[in-house]
Design goal:
Layout lengths: L8 E3 L1 E3 L2 E3 L6 E5 L6 E6 L3 H20 L2 H17 L1 H12 L3 H17 L15
Parallel strand pairs: 1-5
Antiparallel strand pairs: 2-3, 4-5
Helix pairs in contact: 2-4, 3-4
Length: 133
């Protein structure tokens, strides 16, 4: 089904610190579940694109392992801030893509931001659960 919408967006994928189109420049169409209207075109990654992403992740892993807990926490906090700042935009995309309500999509964005923030908190051992031998 074709749409007369002018706000149809093309989405790439992110690997090796770059936004990329599929190597064969193919896209798949995403239609809104309720209206059937074309909502977006997303890079239709091939095996070659998957290999680029896997290789990029493998290349990045040694650097991630070497980061301190404080540096990792800082990155997760920044990600949480980005999700909060772009909450409305991301929630709208999620609602249009999945057919969920805006309020549920917004709740999900709040949950993502809170989860990212929570993984940064230091946890002290629960002294009441320690087993003494």
């Amino acid at each position: 089904m074709r749409s007369n919408q002018i706000d149809v967006k093309d989405y790439s994928y992110f690997a090796d610190n770059h936004w990329r189109k599929a190597q064969d420049n193919q896209f798949f169409e995403v239609h809104e579940p309720y209206s059937g209207e074309l909502f977006a075109r997303v890079a239709a990654g091939s095996r070659a694109d998957a290999r680029v992403a896997v290789d990029a992740a493998a290349k990045a892993f040694p650097g991630w392992v070497e980061t301190t807990p404080g540096e990792r926490a800082s990155r997760f906090l920044k990600a949480s801030e980005i999700v909060r700042r772009r909450r409305t935009e991301i929630a709208e995309i999620l609602a249009r893509e999945t057919g969920s309500t805006i309020s549920f999509s917004t709740f999900q964005m709040d949950l993502v931001a809170a989860t990212l923030q929570q993984v940064c908190q230091r946890r002290e051992p629960n002294l009441s659960r320690r087993i003494h031998l």
